[in-house]
Records
---
Amino acid sequence: MTDQPTTRQTLAPEPNGKTPHDPGPPESPADAKANRTRRNRRYIIKTLSTSPTFISGAVIVLFWVFVGVAWQLVVPHDPQAVDPFHSFEPPSSTHLLGTDNLGRDVLSRVLAGAQTVLLIAPAATVLAVIFGALLGLVAGYYGGIVDIFVMRAVDVLMAIPTLIVAVLVLGILGSSLLNVIILIAVFFVPQIARTVRGSVGDEVQKGYVEAARMRGERGFYSMVIEVLPNVTSPILVEATIRLGYAVFTAATLSFLGLGLQPPSPDWGRTISEQRAYIEISPWALLAPAIALATFIVGVNLAADGLRKAFK
Amino acid sequence: MTTATQEPPLLSVMDLNVAYMVRGESCPVLRDVSLDVRPGEALGIVGESGSGKSTLAFSLLRYLPDNGRITSGTIRIGDVEMTQLSHAALTHERGNNVAIVYQEAGSALNPSMRVGDQIAEVFRFHTSAAGDEARSQAVEMLRSVLLPEPEHLARRYPHELSGGQQQRVVIAMALAANPKLLILDEPTTALDATVEAEIVDLIGTIRSQSNTAILLISHNLGLVARICDRVTILYSGRVVEQGTATEVLHAPKHPYTRALVASIPRFGDAKGTRYLRPIPGAPPSLDTVTQGCRFAERCPLAQSDCLAEEPPFIALGEGRTVRCYHADDASPLPLTEPGDEFPVTERRPEVLQLRNVTKTYKKTTVVHDLSLEIREREIFGLVGESGSGKTTLARIVAGLVEPTAGQILLRGRDVPRRLSRRPRDVKRAIQMVFQSPDSTLNPRHSVRFILQRAIKKLGSATTVLELARRVRLDQAQVESKTTRLSGGQKQRVAIGRAFAGSPDVVLLDEPVSALDVSVQASILSLLVESRRTSDASYVFISHDLAVVRFLADRIGVMYLGWLVEVGDAADVFAAPHHPYTEALVSAIPRLRSSSEQVSRIRLTGPMPPPSADQPGCRFASRCPRKIGSICDTEAPPWRQTGNGHKIRCHISPTALTEVQSGLKS
């Protein structure tokens, strides 16, 4: 026996999209249904480990995660070391990707720049998932007026033009790592809340949730112990997709000067700084841009693989 | 209904083997299946889920999914060898010579196309007809499946039709190209009993008017008995018994067929008069390799030879074969579950009272001014077709739906409408078992966790193992995750969960309708038996009247939100009863159709619009016994017939008895 999502799916698929032809769920033997959960988990792992999409994405992401954590060990030069005498140097054996306008080593700055992205994007995503999932759970579980109130509030949040608010808020509160993280998280809460709300809405109509209500479980217990474990897959998938966007948003804010302030080697910031010198030293601009692109593509590939595996 | 034996068969399946590729391994689903259908004959294929009956239907038309393969054997339809056909020839064959009707008509129709055009398309594709000619032929087709106002109906979209009308349209489409063989795959499973009866009538009409042969695939023995001349019983991909419908269903020889027949409540059976015999265990999974008989493991008559080698077909007579070594062993099947002493319920005090309960959604009345009493230790059956409001009523009692008006009393004390307002003791007292076994238990939890939690919250002295023992779950099942259980086992856990706090009233919403008949029997006998250890009353909701008749002490009949009749089970099932109950009862498929032919009542009128304020009887528009305009203008009164039996009708009980018993005799 190797891996299989469910026996039934494979044994009786619908020919040419026709109707289900078996009455009710199968009363299949216990041993056929046995190990279904475990098999399901193994199926996910197997699908992921044989998916080129997921593997390539994961490799790229893991590379940047490693760099972000251990950049101090791998950088050839101090990314902040200014050397006015060697500015705008093209790639050479000492400076593999050349130097920028202040003579700083481009490669070192790109590697070091991974750190801020890897801090901001996951932190913002985690925050957004926590609050988004909470709102989605509450709205979907209680329904009715609570649902309307929460989801309309979420809709309002979605209708706000992100960058304008970002400019305003960061302009007033000042830009800091924490502010950027919170701001991105707030922007991402609506999407996650909606996804979770949809999945929870399907679950709460099921017998097991109603049985929990009928034996007098509190709402919080029902949400966390009964419903939440059954909506983890969509939450995980949504989180990976949001992660890609978070990287992008963080870079955009930095590019606009709303993120981290100089001399941070942050990619968005660096792209913004170096674009003035594109004709003199394109490498100083291209290197962080390509780094950013690979990271976002990597996250999205991994997200795509996950989404397929959880289907 | 001719069974001319010398005519060459229209459909001839010889030693058909079908396998699915599962995880790179070939997994046999059908093994050496052979059957014949002669022109004009109706053959029933009976089997439970997993028996391979649907696979058989699909392989006949070569509609098998990508991983399915006919590994050996032949399928001949007329002179055509189906297994050798090219794709183009197959397309021609499907429709022209063979047509198939699926279980769910709703999804077999294109929702964005008028039904007339969909049928006309068949004519355009399979005949030379085009344009207006095809369209008028489509209307004729709709007329031939006895749909009212076919010209008008042809211009409607599928969603504007009822489930029964949709199924008629699908049958019309299947018959459009005048096929020689019509395959019906569970054609009525999704339909209400009265609608099912209409479809059965229609199939009868088709058979009398044309020479179309019918292959009916179903798990419903009553339906097969009603339609088919011959029956093939399928078990775990094998044909185990073949013969005429009368012989196989009334004098079954194979232990599996015998067990199957013994596991369904027949018309008129009640728990006081008959045991239901569940079949222990479950069929072997398809990838299980067995040397001997596939049924041996569950067979009470199995001996060592059964396990050693698979029995061959043994001919018992003309066209009657059984795959069993011990088919002549007429010894009764031993009881596999402890019996019940069938306590007769005397009139006990009322435990639950509903007073004028009403539920309206905007302008639609789902439950209309309904009053009802449930007595202690009573099994109260609530019947009605889809849309009758029976589930809503149960959910109101459960607190999951708030009534618009009315009162619920538990032992004389007012029960808050909202679940969150109900004190712990009321929650303990009123529990519910839900319909779908697949969503009733949290897939992330273990059986132990679920039962433990229910005991903790509902507060009783019982232990998990004690509770599990009462619903006949073993230790290993208690420790397993719910996803590892079969449908029947899941429903047992759900019943155990409801009984965790020794409830006063347990609401059971179609708890067995998603289960196979043999499993259904074990749940029903569990419910009967649990009355020995519990004082709980049951409200048992079902659309299956035979099951309700078997289980219930008293029965309430609902129609479009109205309670139209209530009384002791035997009283409700005999004249005088409400004209709607009469129609329901006459629609029950009976196994012994040949000997006890009952003229069926057909409900022809349209369903009234679901608006709330309508004077008169809700059933008036379809009532076959309507007496006049009073039915449309005045709400019918409750009429007592004694013994707590009451009927809501303008016709007096004595007059009802007259017309109804006249029909019955």
---
Amino acid sequence: MRRALQAATALVVLLVLAGPALAEAAGVQVEVDRRSMTTDDDLNVEIRLSGDFDDYAEPTMEGFEVAARSQQQSIQIVNGRMSRQQVLSLRLVARRTGTLTIGSVVLSRGGRPVARSEPVQVQVREPATQPPVSADRAQDLARNAGLPLFLQAETPRTHYYVGEPFSLAWNLYFQPQVQVTGAEIVNKPALQGLLAEELMGPDDQLRVREKVIGGRTYRYVMRSLQLATGLEAGTATIDPMALRVAVGDVFRRGAQTVRSTPFNLEIRPVPTEGRPKWFQEGNVGRFGLSGSLLDAAGTEPKTVQTGERLILDVTISGSGALLSVKAPEVDGGDAFDVQPLPASGEDDIQKDVSGMHGKRVFQFILVPRKPGKQKTPTVHFAWFDPTAEQFKELAWEGREIEVTGRAMASESQTAALAGEDIEPIIEGHTLRRDERLQLLGTPLLWALILLPLAGWLGTEITWRLRARAAKDPAKRRSRGAHKNARMRLGLAREAMKAGLVKDFYGHLSRTLTSYFEERANVPAMGLTHDELREAAGRAGYPADLLEAVIVELENCDFARFAPAGSADAQMREAAARAQELLGRLDRVEPRRLP
Amino acid sequence: MRVGRIGRGACGLVLAVTLAGLAASAEAQPVSADAQKAFEDANAHYYKGEYELAARTYAQILSDEKLEDPVLYNNLGDASFRAGAYGSAILYYRRGLQLEPDGPVAQSLQNNLEVARRVLQDRYRSGADKSQFIYAEPGGLLYQLTHLVSVTTLIVLFLSTWWLALGLAALRRWRPGLRGLGAAAIPVLVLAVLFGSVLGGRVYTDNTFRLGVVVEDRVTLREGPNVDAQGVDVPEGMEVRIVDGDAAWTKVELSNGRRGWVETSEVKQI
């Protein structure tokens, strides 16, 4: 389409070979035909680009959809400089309500912007809602006579019964002079309270028909056909459907949104009074009943053996809720075993503008059990006729047949007679819970999976740590220095509690000196304080920290050799100082001396 | 050295406790005296011909006691069969067989299942063809592979190889003098991973591949989950695969691949 439009666009090139005229400056102008609209309306936008530019960026149009576009263009070259005149026409449809903005159009030359339009704001609102009218009024086509184009929701009656399927068609009517080229559904009715099924597929051909309305000839196409069923008694509202209709021809096109008139349908309950004995819920429509009884050879039986199978076909035909029609009850009494058969495949149900119609075939197997002259079961079928608004019933009379042979038992007894019976129940059994391992999904199973894994991982980690420690005993000792120092400090505190002053200071002194030995391989026990200061300094301990340690060691020496003067308070303070010093020493990363 | 002995002692203790737990879980748990009496009462109802009452009583024991007893399923299946509920009978026999009972009980369940199926074959004129009652393609190759042996056997195989493999790997560190332990652990570990994968596959297929039995007489397989959707009738007793569902509707697949919806009350998971 775009190519066709472009082909239709006049391209005019004027070559001016001489003349001192200057090239025109670039400019852009955006015009809209309205600033306020509904989601049913179209917005026509004209973008005029002019002057010297080599590219342009289209505006952002969030919330809009481009329904159609066309453009016209002319190019001038003045003194070797190109100048364009371009008109871009857009037809936009709003997809939401609110204030929608058409952004700026930007013209550029050589990759640089040279002109920009102002953004345009448009108010978009929902179209005015129409209150639903009565079904009678909505169905009256004559009220629309004179309109060039309208959408009509149509259904055969003004009221239906719960469970009764009916058609709902949306027809687009237009006068012959209106050229309709497309009709897109933009809003489908919700049909609350109805079970609805769309019968038209996306590929279905739209057939144009004619009808005279109010003395005028109209053409119409069916755009949507639904088969609906009222789920409960009350009022069901048929909401409006919105169609965007494309009108015009290749050269001149337009679009228009049309809506059907909403209306109310009455859904009545199936009467509870006067229901026949054979009526089953869901049997609503206009039906007929027929039947046939055949033997295995496909002929009507006259004489049969007990145990011989006969096929009873019951056909319910007509229009209405065929899908929910229940199989008639067939009572074989004690003369016949009756078993319904699965679907025969002979059902034939059609859904169209006249609703649901066709036939359902129910099959039963009859097995004569008693010899003698027997009458096959009579089939009764009852339904509610919504047109006549009354219950109806029909019966298919059973056939007289002669049954020969021995009397037979019922279904399970037949199996037993054939030597196939279930084994007796098991008695004397003590009930038990499941004896199998109930492990799946239990925490015990996970424990049994994870425990050996954890054990193996633990073993592996321990082994690797030990192997690493065995490779470098000095480093291991270094790592153990802190732990050992805490242990010795603990011994000192125990001595303090026991009042053993000499032992306390001895442990305290060893705590500090051993720490140096283990951490930095400084043999502090055999060194004077000066030698300790010098060796520990070489290991990287700061001088002020070493000074504090040596002061504490001297305090210990003094207190050890003059213990009488040492009080509990002094010992606690000494222990606290030693602990604080250990903390500071831990923060140093020393070099281990050789 | 002392720590090592303690560690080995702790491991031994954990192993002993675990095995004791395993043994305890395998031991049959007793049921209440009331349940046992109800079972005897249900048997009495059965012999008096009160099959529906017997079936209700058996079913009550199942739901009250959360029992999974194959004999109880066998008797419940029998009572359902005698009451004419052949679909339910098939369901209970299948559930009983799923518990992998011993010889005589398994034999009884299997025989009864065959008889119930034959009654329905007879009803639906399928002759000797019972294929329509059995879901023929139980889950494809993965299902077949993971159901070659019972869950119990799989668990025992997996756990024993798993413990052995990791035990050998750990013993390699405890007893470095013993050569070849690491090499021996590798094939055992491969076996453990294999058994573990099969066990995982079994859990997966059991959770995703659920079979059910049609337990009602007149069931329509509909194209959608509503009573107005078109459909075909499916016979009572038919095995179906449960694909999806909620409290009202269940999506099932027949053995021939046809899918549809049935009312949830009409089909029960095995």
---
Amino acid sequence: MLGTFACLTTLTLLGFGTEVGTTSTPWWALGLALLAAMIFCGLLNVLAERVAYRPLRRAPRLAPLISAIGVSFIFVNIGLFWQGPTPRRFPDLLPQYDFMSQFFGLHTLVRFTFKDLFVLALAIPLMLGLAWVIRNTRMGKAMRAVAQDTEMSLQMGIDVNRVISFTFLLGGVLAGAASLMYGLYNNNTVFTLGFDAGLKAFTAAVLGGIGNVSGAALGGFVLGLLSALTVTYFGGQWENVGVFSLLVIILVFKPTGLLGQALGDRA
Amino acid sequence: MALLQVEGIHTYYGNIEALKGITIRVEQGEIVTLIGSNGAGKTTTLRTIAGVLRPRQGTIRMGDVDLTKTPPNEIVRLGIAHSPEGRRIFARMSVKENLELGAYTRSDSDLTSDYERVYTLFPRIKERLKQRAGTLSGGEQQMLAIGRALMARPTLLLLDEPSMGLAPVLVELVFRTIQEINALGMTVLLVEQNAHMALSIANRGYVLQTGKIVLTDTAKALAQNEMVRKAYLGED
């Protein structure tokens, strides 16, 4: 939500705040908005970690969960001050182009628009990049080590606080990119947006298997299909029922998720 | 000056005093062993040296540095590597990645010779580099834990129960390896339940009982000591 506001503010400052059905896409402005949202969300996340999680590192597990809810209240209220209580239009800056009818000449109900392509073209490289960072870099290896065994990570000489900060930075940067995708795709935003998005992201991660990037991607995909099918066959008011029933079913029957590894495999 | 000087440390778990004034000295090039029964404080001593636990009293000096005031992730940079009780390898990461993490502080130099040293000591590790560490056998995991500690190229190696849960053949191999590592110039502080094996390779030893040192001598003399023979070597 704050990410979409950062995009919106950037685009407004650049003079594209109210564009509807543009004729030519200002790619440079979108690039700047993307950059602004990524930096803004990344730094915000680092700040939240420093203030709300680091002091609780040795506290019982419930404590950081509660402070996370507190942080989310603060964010929602910042959003409320920033853009007000009513939903805001997000400028429609991408070309209106349907590949199915205009490129392939197929006049079906199925559409594959430029917007769909845009989301894929941005999301897929980011996911591959994230997987690469986690798998191959020194920092990525340190991240996995800290996730498995913090105490032993310290014994390896890993500065655990720095690694956790970096992880939050990375998460925030990706959320910033996601917010531009959301805004350009849905052309609206509202200060409570993050609540729903957060729950769905959590569901997707649980569905795929926590701690597994390809699992989260698969989980997001399955979740998206399920939510679209629920809306089509049962009606929009049933969307969250479908999504969160799935979450409950997964948590009960396969808590490790679709691609998750068995937990508790410490040697 | 001693390489490591532990001076009167008291370590607590909550309100329970686990170490009641432990004083240990380790000289450059030695193998020093801590023996004693379960709960005597051997592992607690190593964990306090490694910075996992903090003593309420006492100092631990490595050269001029007081380890009790050094953050745990800086201690390995001072040349102390810890192969902990229960191995604590990163089970979900590959064998190679475990070794890489062992060398985490070594951004400085070329690691080829360090990998080669580990592979020479533990040929089995080399065969399994791509495997997930959690799928290794107990003996292989122990070798990996020691190899990982060696990758930091420490001056002092802390080894906690390296023989635990291993078949007798592997115990022999592990102890032979410790001697080889020591011959390469590394100082070793060894905690062992298997007092017999530990005393057979160590230069000196300390006997711990309920958080105190009750006896210290050369390993040879300890192996002859009547109390030690009765209590820890299983002789009547």
---
Amino acid sequence: MLNLQPYADPQYFLLLMLGLLPVMIGLYHGRRFKTYETLISLLFIILMFTGAKWQQGVALIGYILWQLAIVFGYLHYRKQRNQTGVFVLTVLLSILPLVIVKVTPAVVLHPSLLGFLGISYLTFKAVQVIMELRDGTMKDVELMPFLRFMLFMPVISSGPIDRYRRFQKDYEQVPERTQYLGMLERAIWYLFLGFFYKYMLGYLFGTVLLPRIEFSALAARHMYWLGLSPALIGVAFVYSMYLFFDFAGYSLFAVATSLVMGIDTPMNFNRPFQAHNIKDFWNRWHMTLSFWFRDFIFMRVTFFIMKHKLIKNPIRVSQVAYLINFLIMGFWHGVTWYYIVYGLFHACAIIINDIWLRFKKKHRKQLPHNRWTEALAIATTFCVVCFSFLIFSGFLNTLWFK
Amino acid sequence: MDKKATVLSILNDLTGEDFTNNLDEDLFASGLIDSMDTVQLLLQLQSQLGMDVPVSEFDRNQWNTPAKIIKKAEDAD
């Protein structure tokens, strides 16, 4: 039976555009064909889970029912009461399936039956809705809009992670014709930029160069202390390029497809390798994820600590919050030593970055600032980031322990 | 002290800058405040003006200039 993985091959893009043609015609004439859109989205989601992947499809259905019960159960509760304990329990129940899916491979060495492609991204969305219900910024959720938000087809497998209220506003507002034509123009540009990123540059770095340079690094590992050969530096840079072009390419496809459907899904990358420092980097790299972490973990943790005066010094508060934030991000990637070290590495990097920024602020007059110091800042940030991606890649695990 | 002056003094404490004549300065774009300062801003608004702003209410596009924050404070009651 036909199986279609999102944005995986030319056939997918052709069928996708064909399937979305009626949606485009409708939006061009100022109408959103809601039923058609729902059906075609469901069809593409079903085709992701046909054949050997049917178990994942069943897991997805079970997962959605689980989240529905939790979110609507909490909504019902929240309309009458608002206890912190219940809120915490609700969030824990909501992330439970994801925790099981992430922990299972580390314990029993095979993937969990509860897993399916996209589970993390659906969890981010569900938790966000629960947090907003808790804060009262969302008073109500309705069944169909919630399902539409959770299962929005263009982004279901790997984001970008949208926000409920933003998504809902776009969905209910049909863009004006000139505005929609502008969206289509952007969609076409993103689509082709995505092809260039993912299928040319991503292919060049990931499929052509990476295996060769990894081979060299493995061949040289006994000649250098800890296998730290020149080729390993090459692995760090080549892998980082691959990671960016592959993921940024995918994200461009997801944003382009959303735009075709009249939804302005937020962008995921903004020239991350031009970042001046690590903080700047996280405002440019996988933005919808880092903003999610900023808004729902970092800020909530700092708010909680400061409100309850658990730690007096604001600098110390931010350092603790960074550690918690990036450790959770590390665990989210998977329960392996290298993801957790990657999280800790970024926490330390951003803490050091903050110390430097404070020093700079105090000594603004003594420190030179020109295009050379800026170039140095960008180059340093780039190297630190590429090293972090070497940790993230898991290649050190192969190099040292296999 | 009126609300405008209170907000300006909170911002002054956080950033070390006086915004009296720069009410439309973009605080996030210029890097003058970050997430940490934001949390302190919300806590100060709460303790000094009694404004209860939950973290998830904080949309950066609606809070990015001193003028917008003053407006929020004035509209609060």
